[in-house]
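Hi support team,

I submitted a single chain yesterday and got back a structure, but I'm not sure I'm reading the token output correctly. Could someone confirm the output below corresponds to the sequence I sent? I've pasted both exactly as they appear in my results page.

Thanks,
R.
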Amino acid sequence: MKYEKITDLIGNTPLLKIPESVHGLKNIELYGKLEMMNPFGSVKDRVAWGLVKDDIEEIQSKQKTIYENSSGNTAKALQVIASMHGAKTKLITYMAKVDGVKDIVRMLGAEIEEVLGGSECFDPNDPNDPQYLIAKMVKDDPERTYFPSQFTNPKNPLIHYESTGKEIVEDLGKVDYFFGGLGTSGSTLGAARRIREEGNDQLVTVGICASKNDFIPGIRSLDQMWESGLFTKGNYQDFVYVDSGESVDAMMELVQKVGILCGPTSGASYLGCLRYLRKIDGELNEKKTAVFIVCDRLEWYVDYIRQRRPNLFGRLPKPGSIQTFEKDVREDQYVIPLDSLPSWLSEKDPIVVDVRGNLAYKMMTIPGAINIPWELFETMIDSADPFPRDRTILLVCPIGEKTTRYAAYLQSRNYDAYSLEGGMLAWRNAREDQTSMAVK
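Hi R., thanks for writing in. Yes, this is the structure output for that exact sequence:
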């Protein structure tokens, strides 16, 4: 089998049947769409090439720089494609959370600028948001910049409609259930539309989301999905929430029992589909078919996996670690409502800890707050008792997700710790509303 260009290898990935002995489903045949077998290693190869291929000659001839909001798989694929065509990339993104992927992208030659605004989920009205910053740069210098905009470009789901979905229908015909992790939502949106049109108009599409206060590469929590982007809640019949540790466990099941060397995002999609399908399997009176996306490879997530499952590397998890902590109680006992914050601050005089990055902290924070970025903060609370127990602690992060979990963990260790409801984004918006009313 001969090919002229590496980009000709993108797509036409295999569907692998997962053995019943592994997943345990009696009435459902389960297939993994092996997107990790694309040439650059992920489902994002389709989007990266699909978004730029029609304009690559112009990008090359005019020496334009490709800008994108990514430090992960899209960034990796874009950088390889750009290098092949003598172009440059500049990636503007929130703090990259998987160093292994970021290191590969930098090694390939990309320039990465990490920014932190008031929110670490998308906010197109935030002047510190990567999407906002890139759009402004392109508007200011359209002759030298190119912005594929994977989060907003309708070509994203169209690419999956024309390729991923088409391939699934050609290989399987009727598909009853389709599962994918929600990042840009392009793959689930586009592929599901093709399956629904040609394979089964009763297709059930299920989005896999990260649990609150957790991080899975390439997957957002439902609260973080950007309604003004490609994501539309009505395109999904249901959502399943998974956490990072369980996703690594599910990934290892695929690795060890099926031989798929996939990453934790694929584990999340596999885990989510099993949770959904096992609830309905016994009620079915005919065979059904389900497909989930195996989105990328294992290798660049080693540090991420080690942090969540140290036992896989011959290390025992530390008793009482933040990584193994689970809370199963009402969140209101950990959260300070935004409207009561001024009086609460005055009464409690707490230590206020802003766990965002240094740049975001410098731009805006609660008066008197100290800055301990979350990576360092987790290490501190995991290894020591960093705060006096006779002082109340208020923790703030972009939208309150991380710090609610931190507050619960610290309360379990007898600290008087709380999280700010809605985080810095809510606090900033409240200040802007007050300023606006004062001007009026």
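A quick pointer for reading it: The first helix runs from residue 20 to 23. Let us know if anything else looks off.

Best,
Support desk
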